[in-house]
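Notebook, p. 212. Picked up where the previous page left off. The plan for this session was modest: take the two constructs that came back from the sequencing core last week, fold each one, and keep the raw output in the notebook itself so nobody has to go hunting through shared drives later. Recording the first one now, exactly as returned: residue sequence, then the structure token string.
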Amino acid sequence: MHIRGFAGALASLGMASTLWLATSGTATAGGCGGKDPLQARDLASRISAVACREHRLWYEPFLDIDGHLASTTVAEMETGLLGDGATPAWKRVVDYWRGSGLLGEVAQRPGASTCEYVTNDSYASPNCRGFLIDTPWSAAFVSYVMVQSGVPGFGASPSHIDYVRHAHRDPGGSPFLIADPLATEPADGDLLCFVRGASAVADHTTLVDWLDRNGSGALAMHCDVVVDANGDGDGRAYLVGGNILQGVTMRILPINRAGRFWNLPQGRNIGCRPDNARACSFNNQHWVALLKLKPGLSMSPPPTIPAGPQAPPAQRCCVHCVVGSGVPRCPPPPSP
């Protein structure tokens, strides 16, 4: 398992001061409003506010209640600026890797090391952007939200299955309790998770059985952060996730009178074709787990972040250089 403690994640931080910037925004309809992490009075509210802050930064793309993409403005690897007018979209994905403390864990992936010192004004290194394109970042986004929110006991990981497994195997140490999403009320700060791709794990029962039999096995998953669970009594849950259709995107799901997910779509888009649009929905997934944030957890202080990226070590240069890597060529040795 590649689970890192909160303190370990903070120790490895090296990113711009904007990572804890409470980006102001006007109130928006449904779900997020103008939630501000610095004004949060409890841990669930802070988690929700951090996820919502990032969603606003990406111009609030969302999937409607039928699971159709209703709005999108900028994609993950573009150089176009996000809502703060300063951060390129691709650079914000780097911030999620660095702000969660996870960039070092994936340093062996091609191009990852070239992301270490980039800034908003950096040349858009093809090697760094290649790493970002080739490496799923939804778990890095969730980890970023939890680390930036100061969730005690959360183990940041580049794989969702690690903190799902942590909640199942160590309910006393994890900040979450694992539950059946079809039988449990969601609340702000929870994580709703599904299994990606073809898998025998298709519901909560088969997930629990798989977790009991696999102490460290991999399972492709995706988790969204619940930012508003029927808070306005509108019968809807609003969730925010990273790497959804190339951005930080909101998902809207129906809630019934009991406060539970109502007719939560299960399965894949079988029969989805241009002439059968009713069969198409990005909400059709194998939803297998609701990670319930434990009530009453204390909020750790937000991380202390340096004013800018740490300076690269001396002699960081290349002799046999790759064009576009962003690493400068070493000067020629002095003549004898």
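Okay, moving on. Second construct, recorded in the same format:
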Amino acid sequence: MKSPPHSKHAISLINAKPFYDTELGSLRRITQDDLPILKNLSIKRLVLAPGSIREPHWHANCNELAYCISGQVLVSILGNGNEFSNFTISSGEMFHIESGSLHHIENIGDEEAVFIIAFRHERPKDFSLHASFGAMTDAVLGNTYDLASSHFEKLTRSMAPKYIVKRDGKPNIPSTAHLPNRHKFDVEGMLPPVSDTVEMGYVHKGKARMSVMDPDGSLDTYYLKPGDCYFIPAAYPHQIECVEGDEIHFVIFFDQPMPQDVGYRTSATAMSREVLAATFGIKEMDLPTFPVTVKDPLIVGRKNPVDKPTSKL
């Protein structure tokens, strides 16, 4: 049974029913089937036990962007144009996979590896290497590899994905896997309230309150806890604030490679005080002294105590 969303913008990912769950690891997902407002983005949580492998697969309709919560893995990619890549990923690092690129994720450490993975489609479609082999006859595979068909008789055949498999023995880590790679990169309050890109976030640590304004003028305010994810359509005014403890940790994905924001701080600089006064129906002298801002800040400090929400939680 699916856990119902506590807001049309947010739902728990960590409490979602896994579509794969064994001693090797687990996979959970939130797609448009679970959160109907989703568009251009969806999210998964991947857990790999030591020695486990997310089987070789590719995504037919979307790119993939993954963030490592914990653990250490080896990622191998066969990209378009026969580009081969191997690299390691540790906690706090991310990697990117283009649509159609064959790839695997292998836990090479002694602890669980946990990933939050975003996809550039509300309903991502996958194909596994195991299933694609199962779709072809021994003769076809033999012709493909210039071998006799008998070489493929011992392969287990099925057109169903295995999702996660177990490695036999120690990992084989290429000597170049620790070098820089274009697919991997490092990553390491309130967020800008308005964005012109679709945004999807996952709460790793802390508790936050979020408010999202919809085009009909309604305001959706809700609390977020670890394991929850949220979705913001393009250009919807919104804010996130820490309500307990000293900090919150989010993994945030966008549907554009270079997301841009239009924020409240810069909007007060872009408009004249006469226009702002007329907009808010007050005299110019009664306007706040807005600071001149030419680049909207990503995070701002808390100058005032947490106030009551203006919509029902």
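Notes on construct two before I forget. The domain at 199-286 is CATH 2.60.120.10 (Jelly Rolls).
Flagging for discussion at group meeting.
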